[in-house]
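Cross-check.
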Amino acid sequence: MIESFYELFLSRYNYWMAIILMMIGLYALIAKQNLVKKIIGLNIFQTAIFLFYISFAEVRGGTAPIYTAEGVHDLYVNPLPHVLILTAIVVGVSVTAVALSLIIRIYEEYGVIDENELMQAVRKR
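Predicted model, tokenized:
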């Protein structure tokens, strides 16, 4: 019984951490009214997705997919998730930069960064 608990929960801690981070980010996106906090929640959510995908690439006993001598057969770690996540990190940083610049522009125009106050300010115009 103890071994099955260990196998189910503790040996897959990276998946559990990804789920916890995902829930924290989703909570920040839904519950917070401050636009900067929403962007931080989006970044936490993205990081959880990155961790989740990188976890799929792990192969027990696997090595880095590099050139080995001919005739040597090794078990390799899948490099595709790493490449995809590297691209996703660049896209995530770009989205964050654009979102923060939009928040700055909103603040310059309306003087608020709170979602409810922004909706009231837009209605007044």
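The radius of gyration is 21 Å. The chain has one domain: 2-124. Passed to J.P. for a second look.
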